[in-house]
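Sample 1 of the test manifest.
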Amino acid sequence: MAVRAEAAVADRAPAEETVRRRATVARRLLRHRLFVVGALLFACVLTVALFADLLIAVDPNRISIRNKFKPPGSEWLLGTDNFGRSLWSRVAKGAQLSLAIGFGVVLLNAFFGTLIGLLAGYFRVLDDILMRIMDAFMAFPVILLAIGIAAALGPGSVNAVIALAVVYTPRTARIVRASVLVVREQAYVEAARAMGAGHARILFRHVLPNCLAPLIVQLTFIFAYAVLSEAVLSFLGLGAEPPTPSWGNMIAEGRQYIREAPWITLVPGFALAITVLGLNLLGDGLRDVLDPRLKVQQ
Amino acid sequence: MTAPLVEVEGLEKRFELRRAAGLRRVRRELQAVAGVSFAIARGETLGLVGESGCGKSTTGRLLLRLLAPSSGVIRFDGREIQHLSERELRPLRRRMGIVFQDPWSALDPRMTIEEIVTEPLVVHGVGDRASRRRRAAALLERVGLARIHADRYPHEFSGGQRQRIGIARALALEPEFLVCDEPVSALDVSIRAQILNLLLDLQRELGLCCLFISHDLGVVRYVSDRVAVMYLGKIVEIAPTARLYGRPLHPYTQALLSAVPIPRPGRRPRILLEGDPPSPLAPPPGCRFHTRCPRAFAPCAHIEPELVEVAPGHRVACHLHTPARATGGAA
């Protein structure tokens, strides 16, 4: 059949210029200027946090009254605070803490948010119950709820992580659920059912991988919020307990001297701003590339 | 004819539609399939045609038990399967397959072609990794794709190629029964013939029993041994292909056939149906087709015609072909 052979040739995909999905994603991210800026900013903070112990010469908690209120300069890189402690050492150790808490929140949040979102979106009988509970959490202002939970649990970094994970989980659950609702109606899910695949296989092999893009984007933003909120909690004395340096309690301690020694608050403030800005740019870039539907028309 | 592989009797499917109206919830029922009976023999292809929304696809999904019927009997290889649980259905799923209409959503975009094609084998624990890999290559070759395509992702393929991949997946477990749900209607006309020929070849080669769902009468004629015409959830006529196309009896079938483009127009009158099919939420009483039927007469609006055999293998549900007598009880 001549027609058949001819059409078969036309039907072949261009074999040579096969481009792998992952390669394209990486390339498009690198071409996204703001993503690169965000990645560099975040990489700086991450490097400082990872190698904090190698990068600091002075113990962050060593008090030296003689050296108090030294401004940033050649002797003290970022200056000293009211106890003469090195702000560079403290802000670097603070980065360690902030990012650790951010990661902790993201991990817990990813786990529970994904679990709840998958269950609510896939098993429709659970949807009403689970999502009404999530709505109840979302009815509170985030930071107020976090303060409430952290206050109930008592101060400490671990409790801050728990409090923040709880308050951000409903958002992640909603995003995952929304994606699941779309993906579950795709024919490939029905195909999996038709071949006899169980719920677990369908959920984790088909539904979850196809919901990953918006989830990753969301988690990047959650990371930024978590770092910021942790600073708020420790500013209020609910996060890491002094003298453990955290950006929040450093700002709180420097507050009284803001006129005479503004660098005490500005240094952790900048660190916070750079981290959050970096993560937000990172998130924007990931969103534009992985999940273009969410992009606002420019 | 041998014993049928797939058989349904009085199959019904009602969907409950819930809509919030203020604070109350309004419940309405949509009857997608309203008492359908037919049988398909081993190695036979039954075509199922009808307008969109007439319940063709729902019927296909009921046969595969992707949906649970509201009532009626579904028999697969002599065994009633209408109330089996998912667990009990699992071994039977090996023996059934489905090819979807939309080749773009039928393949998981996150899986390679090999993963897609071998997934049924993995699900049923058939073979080891190496043997599955060989099987994937053989399947791809059988549907006209090359072995080197196995490691690529669906987005790298055209619609026709994707449909070939979907067919390869459906055949991975060597099923006896295949539901083809509009397998070519989403494809370019130039690709359709290839896919149809592929399906025909495979049917003959593997002795597949097939339910071929389509709204395209030309396509159905090409692949089917027998054809059933559905209207608003009911079968109005069912007959061997040559007979249905040669001597259609039901006015609906006649109207459908007159709408098929033919090489020499003007040779036969077109029967134009007016209006849209009535809503399946409120099907008309009597014959469901009487609101649009050009030949409706007295009993049509009150008495529902039954599907009666008018010639060997040819059954039709129309008062024109059932002498007024026996229908009294069917109202």
